[in-house]
């Protein structure tokens, strides 16, 4: 007869389940907040880019390294969660966003596209390129190791766009405290998890780096608070009134020129 599972094995199972489903759930409240306000101001869409690219790459890393299955499941759930969050961010993008204003601020307007389909096409191309490279170089331990550092290294930069956005706005307006606490708590949890589970070196190094950025954002929260930044446009009624006054002023100028 097989022995009943010990309390240690149950704890390990619960830890693995928490690692698989916890990080994707962090973004549920952020998505709800954006939908409720119908405004994605304050949340950096680059967060979605980093998580999507990193977790797609991590799936290929798993094919070569076969680390814990819970981490693979986490990546799949995270990809689905970020695809949904990205759609919401595009649907409720700020009226001051570069694509809304028709301004190009990046080469090929990367990740500032106006159509959700363009994001999907880019991700599909990324998957195809990585699949081809894996078929050619997947037998190489060096390639798999580099793939792991790329995936985990990119994911560790996740809080940096938000850190920069907060610094530019001098505010954490629109960035949910629940998301921040989820980042800090989740990264603390996974750092401990990686060390206790003996995960590959890539996971440990990148988790420590990411946790340090979380601490910096917590410091920003204390220093800046959450006042609305000057880039946030006024309410719809105020905006219409401002446009009416502007049109009235332009009409007055044109009449004055006609009289002259």
TrEMBL record:
The chain crosses the membrane at residues 6-27, 47-65, 71-92, 113-137, 143-164. Its main location: membrane. Keywords: Membrane, Transmembrane, Transmembrane helix. It is a multi-pass membrane protein. It comes from Marasmiellus scandens. InterPro entries: PQ-loop_rpt, SLC66/Scramblase_ANY1. This is PQ-loop repeat-containing protein 1. PANTHER family: PQ-LOOP REPEAT-CONTAINING PROTEIN 1, PQ-LOOP REPEAT-CONTAINING PROTEIN 1-LIKE PROTEIN. It holds the Pfam family PQ-loop. It is found in: Membrane. It comes from the Eukaryota.
